[in-house]
Specification:
The complex is a heterodimer of chains A (about 300) and B (about 220).
Chain A: H1 7-17, H2 21-33, H3 37-60, H4 73-82, H5 90-107, E1 111-113, H6 123-135, H7 139-159, H8 164-167, H9 169-187, H10 192-204, H11 222-241, H12 250-262, H13 280-290
Chain B: E1 13-15, H1 19-36, E2 42-48, H2 49-58, H3 60-68, H4 81-87, E3 91-96, E4 105-113, E5 116-126, E6 129-135, E7 138-142, E8 148-154, H5 159-169, E9 174-181, E10 187-194, H6 200-207, E11 212-218
Parallel strand pairs in B: 2-3
Antiparallel strand pairs in B: 2-4, 4-5, 5-6, 6-7, 8-10, 8-11, 9-10
Helix pairs in contact in B: 1-3
Chain lengths: ~300, ~220
C-alpha cells in the first residue's frame, strides 16, 4: 500500500524503513502517478522557484492590493529587522515577514503556489526561506521541505479539509502551519515522530479559527494569520525538537479539527458574513470597496 | 481519497488571491470549455453559496471566464478576462442564487453558440481542486485530473463492453468509470477517466459504435 492514511501510518513506515517523511512522500507520488522521480522532483523545484520569487517580490517591492487593504507589511518587518532592535528573534520575524510577503503578492493578484491553498500560501515558504538562511540549507533540503509539508497536507486534506469555505481558517492556516512545523523539524534534523508531534502541537493551537475575511477578500485578516502561522510553526517545531510531546495524538487533533469545522456556522466559513467581516469597520470597508454593504446572514438555526 | 497527489497540496501555481475561488473557478471554466470543444458565443454563469457571496473580492468572475477562454490558473491575462471576452464578442451574464447547492463553492456554467450548448455544474473543493458533478442534466463525477472520455449513448445492454473493448485494444487502462442516466431506456452518459491519453482514432472508433450518440475527450486541466 503506497498511500498513507494517517500520521501514525506515515511515521511508522518512516521508522520501519529508516527514511525521512519527504522520501515516503516522493515514493508514494511515484507509485500513484507512475511518473519518474526526476519529473516529480523537477515539478517541486519549479514550485519552489515560484515561491522564492513571490517572497522576493513581497519583501523588496511596494506591493499594494487593488482594494488597498493589504500590502507593505512584509517590507516593513524587513526594515525593522535591519535596524537590529527587535524582541522575538531574527528567524521568527524573518519567517513572519516572508510569510506575509507571499500573501501580499497573492492579494495583489500576483503569482504564487497554493500551499495548501492561496489564502494560506505564506506559512510554508515563509518558514522555509527564513530557516534556510539560518541552517544554510541546500536546494535539495528546500525541495524536501516541500515534500514533507505536502505529506502532512495530504493526510489532513483526506481526513478533514483544507478550504476555509468547508472548515474555517483552521483548515487553511491551521493545516499550513502543521505542514510547515513538520517540515521544519525534518530540515533541522529531527525525527519523523518529532514531525508528527509538531503537527499536533501546531494544529491544536489553531483549532477553532474561523474564516471571516473582511469584504470577502483574501487579505484581512489572512495576511497576518499567515504571519502568526509561521511563528506558531517555528515554536511548535522547537517544542517537538526539545522532546515535548502532545497529549492528544496528531491524527486525533486532525479529527477534532474536522468535527469543529463541520459544526462551524456558515457565517464563519468564508462567506464574509460573520466574525471580523461583520464588525463595524469590516462592514464599512466592504461598503467602501464595493459601494454597498454586504448581505446580512439570516439567523442561523444550527446544522 | 479526495486528494491523490502531493501537487494537489503543494500547488497549483496560480494567480491570486484564492485557490478555491480563483484557481478552482478557472479550472471549472476551462473544463467546461474543453467539454464544449470551442469558444462559445454566450456564457451564463450562476454562482451559489460562498461563490455568490464573495465572487467579486476573489476574482471568481474573471477567473471562471478566463477558464472559458482556455486560460490556465497561472495565466497573467486572468485579471483582464472579462474585457478580453468582450473584445472577442462573447456575451457573459452572471447570476447569483441563494438556492441550496451541492457544495459551498458551486458554479453552474452554460455555454452556447449557433451549433449547440452545454450546461455543467462544478464545485471547487479546496486547494484549486475541482469536481464536475453535473453535465447536461446527468449526475457525474469528473475531477479534471486525468484524461477523460465522455460517451453519450442509448441506454441499452452491451454499451459498456463495446466501449471498453476499444480502450483495451489501444492498451488504455481505465482508472475510474461511471454511468448515469436521466431515465431508464433513454440516453445515458458514460464517464471514463483513464491513466493514458486517448488517441484520436480510438475516439473515432468509439464514436462509430452503434447506439453511441457522441464521444467527447477532455485532457486534464
Amino acid at each position: 500500500m503506497v498511500h498513507f492514511r494517517s500520521i501514525k501510518e506515515l511515521v511508522e513506515r518512516c521508522e520501519r524503513e529508516q527514511k525521512p517523511i519527504s522520501e515516503a512522500m516522493i515514493e508514494a507520488e511515484m507509485a500513484v502517478s507512475g511518473r519518474s522521480r526526476e519529473a516529480i522532483w523537477n515539478q517541486m523545484a519549479q514550485n519552489l522557484e515560484v515561491m522564492e520569487q513571490a517572497v522576493k517580490r513581497g519583501i523588496t517591492e511596494d506591493i499594494r492590493s487593488r482594494s488597498g487593504l493589504s500590502g507593505g507589511a512584509a517590507k516593513k518587518v524587513q526594515e525593522y529587522l535591519a535596524r537590529g532592535m527587535f524582541l522575538s528573534g531574527h528567524t521568527v520575524l524573518d519567517a513572519v515577514s516572508k510569510a506575509m510577503a507571499v500573501n501580499e503578492v497573492n492579494a495583489a493578484m500576483g503569482t504564487i503556489v497554493a500551499t495548501p491553498t492561496a489564502g494560506a500560501a505564506g506559512v510554508v515558504p515563509g518558514t522555509l526561506f527564513a530557516l534556510s538562511e539560518k541552517l544554510e540549507a541546500t536546494r535539495e533540503q528546500q525541495i524536501r521541505f516541500l515534500f514533507t509539508a505536502g505529506a502532512i497536507g495530504y493526510i489532513i486534506a483526506n481526513n478533514a479539509f483544507i478550504a476555509g469555505a468547508t472548515g474555517g481558517c483552521q483548515a487553511e492556516v491551521g493545516s499550513a502551519t502543521a505542514m510547515a512545523a513538520a517540515a521544519i523539524v525534518e530540515m533541522a534534523g529531527g525525527t519523523p515522530r518529532q514531525s508528527g508531534e509538531a503537527v499536533a502541537i501546531a494544529l491544536k493551537n489553531l483549532l477553532g479559527l474561523v474564516c471571516d475575511p473582511v469584504a470577502g477578500l483574501v487579505e484581512a485578516p489572512c495576511v497576518k494569520r499567515n504571519a502568526m502561522g509561521a511563528a506558531v510553526a517555528l515554536v511548535a517545531a522547537d517544542l517537538a525538537l526539545a522532546g515535548v510531546t502532545s497529549v492528544i495524538p496528531p491524527d486525533e487533533v486532525i479529527e477534532a479539527m474536522y468535527r469543529i469545522g463541520a459544526s462551524m456556522p456558515r457565517a464563519l466559513k468564508e462567506t464574509a458574513l460573520g466574525g471580523l467581516a461583520a464588525t463595524p469597520t469590516g462592514r464599512a470597508l466592504a461598503a467602501k470597496i464595493f459601494g454597498r454593504p454586504p448581505a446580512i446572514e439570516p439567523q442561523q438555526t444550527g446544522d | 481519497m479526495k486528494y491523490r497527489s502531493v501537487f494537489d497540496i503543494i500547488g497549483p501555481i496560480m494567480i491570486g488571491p484564492s485557490s478555491s475561488h480563483t484557481a478552482g473557478a478557472a479550472r471549472i471554466g476551462r473544463t467546461a470549455r474543453a467539454l464544449f470543444g470551442r469558444e462559445p458565443k454566450e456564457v451564463v454563469i450562476t454562482f451559489y453559496g460562498s461563490f455568490a457571496q464573495t465572487y467579486r473580492g476573489h476574482g471568481t468572475d474573471v477567473a471562471i471566464v478566463g477558464g472559458i477562454l482556455d486560460f490556465d490558473t497561472f495565466d497573467p491575462r486572468i485579471p483582464r478576462a472579462l474585457e478580453i471576452a468582450a473584445e472577442r464578442g462573447i456575451r457573459v451574464v452572471f447570476r447569483l442564487s441563494d438556492e441550496e447547492a451541492p457544495h459551498p463553492n458551486t458554479a453552474r456554467v452554460h455555454l452556447r453558440d449557433g451549433r449547440g450548448s452545454l450546461e455543467l455544474v462544478g464545485i471547487s473543493i479546496g486547494g484549486g481542486k475541482i469536481e464536475i458533478v453535473e453535465l447536461n442534466g446527468f449526475a457525474l463525477k469528473l475531477s479534471g485530473n486525468h484524461p477523460a472520455l465522455l460517451v453519450l449513448h442509448e441506454d441499452r445492454y452491451g454499451m459498456i463492453a463495446a466501449v471498453s473493448n476499444v480502450l483495451a485494444k489501444h492498451a488504455i487502462n481505465i482508472g475510474h468509470m461511471e454511468v448515469s442516466r436521466r431515465e431508464r431506456g433513454r440516453e445515458a452518459l458514460m464517464v471514463i477517466e483513464t491513466d493514458q491519453g486517448i488517441p484520436g482514432d480510438a475516439i473515432q472508433e468509439i464514436a462509430a459504435i452503434p447506439h453511441v450518440l457522441a464521444a467527447n475527450y477532455v485532457q486534464p486541466v
